[in-house]
Amino acid sequence: MNFKTIVITKNKLIAVFTGITVLAAGAITVKFFPKESISVFKTNNMYESILSEGLPDSEEKSFSVKSIIDRIAEMKIFSPEKIIGRYSAVFDRTSTDDAVQEKTEQEPDNNNNESAEVSEEPPMPDKTQICSSVGMKLNNATQYDIDIDSLCAEEMPFTVEKDAPQVLVVHTHTTECYDGDQMSGETERTTDDNYNVVAVGEVICGVLEENGIHTIHDKTYHDYPSYQGAYSRALTTIENHLKENPTIKIVLDIHRDAFVYEDGSKLEVTCDENGISTAQVMIVAGTDSMGLWHDNWRGNLVFASKIQNAAEIMYPGLMRPVNLRTERFNEHMTRGSLILEVGSNGNTLAQAKEGGKNVARAIAAVLNAN
């Protein structure tokens, strides 16, 4: 078998080999073309560039299709549940059903946040309220037995200072943007920071700063021009900041979820907060389940549980269930590292900014009450 070309994006993985037919696995599509049909591989997707890194070199005499794809995708290509779970917990049947139900039950008529009446922000809960969760929801993709309500009652694994950087906001998938707001075709990505998740990160940083929490916002593109290796590049960015600012205790990686239904519609996760249509937020916490070192994962989950509870007190319905995953997601670097999935590809940027503002106030409440 003569290996020709592999192209990968978040939505699809295309591998070109000699004399193989088409194989499909869930939401990931793998296409194979005969050697004689390959001349020039053209695409309008700026992310579907030909990849060379990560392939077997000339010294590797024996390898399989599976091993090649695993190395490129940084996941198990023939374990569909791991492929799908890599990108979004919404593919979990329970999560999807919950999201659809939420969308059906909470469809607000007002999608124009700017015209909505501005209401007073809810008061921030105190430490006793934050630590007294009851019935918190957790989507647990690991084998660990977790009582998230008990975790919420535990002491925080760190305290914050007021005179030094405490929070780093990064974006592993920096170009993720929102439906109806400068989408780049099927990729749903843009390098315009006025429309991608960087704009949501700006809102989050602003709210934290307003509440006395010194925050650094890194806007580096880790998924462009190449999507492959985004997490590795983001890790380098995080490491550099921690060296320059060793006082940083919290790393928030801001993403946007995504799912397209069979009819072409896109997942929209919303709630109505005081008459304002708001994107829901999902906290993703990684673990050491895949064998990578991550002694901090339980502390991260303690932090996540307190944010979840504070947000539910302040903004009922804002949070989707906490998503505990087998992957590490660079969250081993501090005791307060988490992914925040703010909205989905069916949400507008205005909704996402509102969700980012609200979850940032909940984070500020947790940090200032500790």
Please give a structural write-up.
Helices cover 29% and strands 14% of the residues. It has 370 residues and is α/β, with parallel strands linked by helices. The chain has a seven-stranded mixed β-sheet, with helices on both faces. It has a two-stranded antiparallel ribbon with strand order 1-2. Helix 6 runs parallel beside helix 9 (349-369) and helix 8 (297-314) packs across helix 9 (349-369).
Secondary-structure map:
Elements: E1 5-8, E2 13-16, E3 23-25, E4 28-30, H1 65-73, H2 80-87, H3 93-105, H4 127-130, E5 138-140, H5 148-153, E6 167-170, H6 197-210, E7 215-217, H7 230-244, E8 250-255, E9 270-273, E10 276-279, E11 281-285, H8 297-314, E12 322-324, E13 336-342, H9 349-369
Parallel strand pairs: 5-12, 6-7, 6-8, 8-13, 11-12
Antiparallel strand pairs: 1-2, 3-4, 9-10, 11-13
